Amino acid sequence: MLLKRRSWLLLANLLLLAVLVAGCVTPAATPAQNTGTTSEGSTAPAENAGAIVDVKYSYAGRGVPRDLQQVQDAMNVILNEKIGVNLILDPIDFAAFNDRMQLQLAAGEPCDIIFTAPWINSYTNNVANGSLLALDDLIKEEAPGLWASMPETTWDAARINGKIYGVINQQIFVTPWGVHARKDLLEKYDFSLDNVTKWEDMEPFLEAVKEGEGITPVYADDGGIGSSLFLSQYYGYDALDDGIGFIGIKADDETLTVVNLVETPEYREAANLSKKWVDAGYFPSTLAAVDEATAAFRAGLFAMGYHNEKPGVNAEWMQQYGWEFESKILTDPMILNTAGATATMNGICTTSEHPVEAMRVLELLNTDPVVYNLLSRGIEGEHWVWADEAKKVIDYPEGIDASTSGYDPNTDWMFGNQFNAYYRSEAQVGAWEATKKLNDEGYPSKAMGFVVDRTPIQTEVAQTTAVLEEFGRPITYGWVAYDEAAPDLLDRLNAAGAQTIIDEVQRQLNDWKAAQE
Fold first, then answer.
1. CA dist 467 to 221, 246, 475, 491, Å?
2. Per residue in 101-135, pLDDT tens?
3. Could you tell me which CATH class the domain 177-339 is placed in?
4. 2-168+345-414: what CATH class?
């Protein structure tokens, strides 16, 4: 049966290759995909003597791209030959991803590669629940290029109880929170970002836009940071574990004192500012799904967003929202912490039937630019064309843009080593080097390298997470006043075990510090 199945797969791949040559892939690119060699210097494939196996990759996305199957088939022309894998792409809408993955993992359903992070499909929770495989030996044996691409000190950020359970996606590790505003409206209302140093400095622009354009100025959605202006790094905190949601230390605190962030003056300040912006009509009164909010931005119904304003990001915002943008980083200093280094990762499920092959997929996604850009950008000639191949700059084919392309996930930071991504525009050239420079210059938190072990506090984390979702979200999103609602939130957090969490994390942090000395 295996031999018969493989024969069918090889026949299907040969037929697909003929189609690609005829219509989708340039003749120059076709031999590279057929043999497994690439113009980027990838090595020739090792002979695959075993049967081709299925490996599923589940990750968050903005819906299912129209040409997903076409891209998957093109990738498998390479993966079948190189590593004997038939990759199944499984994008799940951002709004549903966390719940669906947690239910699947809790049920012990088989899975292979999954996207995991501190902020969604929680990495530490998944490790605590036994859902992720320890990868130390697998990485070194099956993904030597991936292992060598980062220093061991970076890999240490992913260690929990001494083991690595997630492959770190190389991208920006610091978090330069800031703003990006439509260039046309900045010019129309004669507003410059040069003198903007904090959220409040944007208010004259927001008021002018609201009055002059009759639109809600600030983008927000229900799948990201919502309408909350409390972003821990912006206010100088290392949140230690974003999945817990209310603990942290001041990044420069030599004493490593764990605090309840809800009680801090910075949290109160941010919550009050969010409420001010909601009341003024700067934030939307209700949060739409990501795809709906994105469509609204493209339609001109927002003027500004606030996010991670990394080098070259204006080209990404233009590609996503369809406008020219100017951006400004407002975070000073930019903090390098464990959560930043592990902000996006891919893990392998303990239920995977093919962990070796899954790791080989991750090796290619992190070391082979052709494979990585197939997943990130789509098929050459169909979804992108070279604008300047020497500089690795691509553009959309004639007559196609981000809104009409059949494949344009815009989540390359999720798939592997982003520094292998082709640039979207000439303006981005050099962004990867600039990003590495920001990483190198980031202010290291005094707790850099520390990872919370949730095992002793799993129950309390679950209980406080539920409280934060029901009673904390309205405060941080500016829907209710901090002074009126925070006392009740703090009482509920304490009843759910907040102090137990703080005490346990403090104990772990003290032990970790002692081990460093």
1. 21, 11, 12, 10
2. 999 999 999 999 999 998 899 898 899 899 999 99
3. alpha beta
4. alpha beta
